[in-house]
């Protein structure tokens, strides 16, 4: 199935997905609160090279130009006239991020409650990320989720990264599950757009990005974290309707 054939918006809610087959997660800002580390690395390194006349980038600039985007797209935005320099800068920045994250990478509140709920129901699961491979593997390992995910889908392994639906469509294909029985967890405008374009309900997290911006991307739900009562009310209703394939069997 091509991206074009399946790029339809879904207004299904989580209970409508019964029986549930899979849950797909973004990584940065969705599994862990990593954006402050990315912001810090970008701010320090851009200031060092005199970007923006040496004025440190603020939260607004970070959200608008960097958060949730693939590194190629970030390089185009920051270094439009010198892509080789942009590529090298991003490589160095990611190395700095990994050093910072290895010391402190807090999981999103309630994450392990949700992962246990998913495991208990025997659902399939994938991490779908625009992050570089080394970053994704390090964060997933640091969070103790290496054995949790059936597969990790990278934006760089697809023809187009998020905000296009390709990475999520690839996850559905690899897991052999239907978009009609799968939902997505995301925290960025780019990621929510990708999940919606792939035809799945998206649970948007207000980890760091402004609520009004996230709403423009059309998530089905917007929650603070994985302890949000809205999420658990929806999951409880799903269980009543037939839950997952395992509970329905």
UniProtKB/TrEMBL annotation:
Keyword Metal-binding: yes
InterPro entries: Beta-PGM-like, HAD-like_sf, HAD-SF_hydro_IA, HAD_2, HAD_sf, PGP-like_dom2
Short name of any one Pfam family annotated for the protein: HAD_2
Keyword Zinc recorded: no
Keyword line: Magnesium, Metal-binding
Required cofactor names: Mg(2+)
Single annotated GO MF: catalytic activity
Protein name: Haloacid dehalogenase-like hydrolase domain-containing protein Sgpp
Natural source organism: Herrania umbratica
Source species taxonomy: Eukaryota, Viridiplantae, Streptophyta, Embryophyta, Tracheophyta
């Amino acid at each position: 199935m091509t991206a074009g054939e399946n790029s339809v918006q879904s207004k299904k809610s989580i209970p409508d997905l019964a029986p549930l087959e899979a849950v797909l997660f973004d990584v940065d800002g969705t599994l862990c609160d990593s954006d402050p580390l990315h912001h810090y690395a970008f701010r320090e390194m851009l200031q060092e090279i005199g970007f923006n006349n040496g004025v440190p980038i603020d939260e607004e600039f970070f959200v608008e130009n960097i958060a949730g985007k693939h590194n190629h797209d970030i390089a185009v935005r920051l270094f439009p006239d010198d892509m080789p320099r942009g590529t090298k800068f991003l490589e160095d920045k990611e190395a700095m991020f990994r050093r910072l994250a290895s010391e402190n990478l807090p999981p999103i509140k309630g994450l392990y409650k949700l992962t246990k709920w998913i495991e208990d129901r025997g659902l399939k699961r994938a991490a779908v990320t625009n992050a570089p491979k080394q970053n994704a593997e390090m964060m997933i390992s640091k969070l103790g989720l290496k054995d949790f995910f059936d597969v990790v889908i990278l934006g760089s392994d697809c023809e187009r990264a998020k905000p296009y639906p390709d990475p999520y469509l690839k996850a559905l294909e690899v897991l052999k599950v239907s978009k009609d029985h799968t939902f997505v967890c995301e925290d960025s405008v780019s990621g929510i757009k990708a999940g919606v374009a792939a035809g799945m309900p998206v649970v948007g997290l207000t980890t760091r990005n402004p609520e009004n911006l996230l709403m423009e991307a059309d998530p089905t739900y917007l929650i603070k974290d994985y302890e949000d009562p809205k999420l658990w009310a929806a999951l409880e209703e799903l269980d009543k309707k037939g839950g997952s394939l395992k509970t329905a069997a």
